[in-house]
Each structure stands twice: as C-alpha cells, then as structure tokens.
Amino acid sequence: MPSSALPSLPPARINQAVTLALAEDMGDAGDITSAAVLPAHATAHAQIIARETGCIAGLGLAEAAFALSDPAIRVTCHLDDGADVTPGTAVLDVEGNARAILGAERVALNFLGHLSGIASTTQAIVTAVAGHRAKICCTRKTTPGLRIFEKHAVRTGGGVNHRFGLYDGILIKDNHIAIAGGIDPAIEAALAQAGHMVSVEVEVDDLAQLHQALVHPVDAILLDNMTTDELAEAVKIIDGRVISEASGRVTVDTAPAIAATGVDLISVGWITHSAPCLDFGLDYAPTD
User: Fold this and answer.
1) 239 is a catalytic site residue
2) Which domain holds residue 9?
3) What's the confidence (pLDDT) of residue 4?
4) Same domain, residue pair 103 and 166
5) Per-residue confidence (pLDDT) for residue 45, from 0 to 100
6) Catalytic residue status for 173
7) Is residue 106 flagged as an active site residue?
8) Is 151 a catalytic residue?
C-alpha cells in the first residue's frame, strides 16, 4: 500500500511511546555495556536490514528511537511504511555517536519487527481473500499502550480498523445481552443513548438472534463463531440492510471460505496480539 494512502501517526504519540521504551531499556544507569566498551566520542555507521520477506511498518518509531537517543544522529530511510521487503533489503541507514546508536538499537528493532509482523500477517490474509468483497478488520485485542500503532500496522498491510476503543462505537456483545435481559432491551437501550454519529453493532451467535436483532435499526451485525453455511444463510437474511461482520476461527487458510459467504468484514483479533515478529537486524557498516 502506498504510504500516501495511510493516515499519519501523531508525532507526539510516537515520541511518547519511544521515550517510554528508551527509559525502560536505559534505566537509571544507561547502557553500561557500550559505556564500558566504546569511547564516548566513537562514531559508527550502521544499517537496519530485513532478514525476512514481508511488509514494513513502524519506520517512524524506529527513526524516533535514534533521534531521541541523540538528535545529532543522521537517519536515512530508504523505504516507506507499506513497502515490501525481502531478506537483505536495506531499510534505513544510521550514522553518528556509536553509544547512542547501540542504545537505541533494540527499541528501534522491537517496534519495527512487531509492527511489520502485524502488517505482513494482515497482508497475507488480505491476499488470501482477494476477489471477495470482505475486508480484513482488526479488533481491540491489542498490546496495552500500542493500539494506535498496531492499528496503523493493520492498515499498512491492507486491512481496515474496527473501533479504537470503548468510546467511539457501540458494540453490544453477549455479556451485555445477558445482563440487560435479552437482545431487545439491550438494543433498545443502546439506540436510546446513541448520538447520531455513533454506530450501533450487535453480536449474535445464531440465526434466531439475527432475526431478533434485525427488527431494530442497528448499523451492523457481528456474526460470531458461525459455520460457513450459517454465515452464508445470515448474509442472505441480512440482504444488504446492515453491515455484516464475521469473527471466530479466522486464519489465512479459513479466511477465503469465510469471505466467499459474502460478509462485508472479517475481524481477526490475533493479527494484533499474536502476529509473529518480522526479523530485522542492525548491522555495522564500516566506512572506507
């Protein structure tokens, strides 16, 4: 995906997350290994190199790690978020104080590897459902404190975002329904409270609940853990009246069959909380 199609991450949020990560790694004493081994004014030139094939995300955080470690460090990014990489691809060059570079190395690689892993995993599922209408969607199953970045990585990989938190969309789930006394009272109460800019979605477990929910003017239905046959029947019942979202048991292998049922969205929680990290390394590059 071209970087121009992605919304920009707020610099203040990037700096906040990276500052916390650097503080966590440095503690009160700083990098005692580099301080013991390297002269204070030693300089170095290094490159971050991709070691796996995938889709890159998180370059802004990697760049910030070096800049916040030492503003005098020169960072040159060769790619944008959304670019595809293969083993050996040079992602960025960094040059400056050696202690500062090595002090920022792990923070930069942690963010870059984690977010690129999410983008790459999302891209794989998006590719698997190509040709169907379904869009791959993330959830609130994110790492605490990193949600904005992980959702950015999903978009980088070609997916779309669900709500960002409990504050920006009403999603009536099974526990809401149980405590409220049923689907009807739960939906009626939600609709009475929702402003005109707030969407209301309701989770259903079977077709009987689906019929109940569709009596009300909701905006979307979450079809939870249904078989593909049930999903196909649910899509027929909905008949385009509301947005249909499928969730549960979604993998790269199962996603095509789920998409073939005609649902609008397929939500996948594990693409943010369990996507494998994409491997990058920081390699010292001697200068002539």
Assistant:
1) no
2) 3-125+276-284
3) 47
4) no
5) 97
6) yes
7) yes
8) no
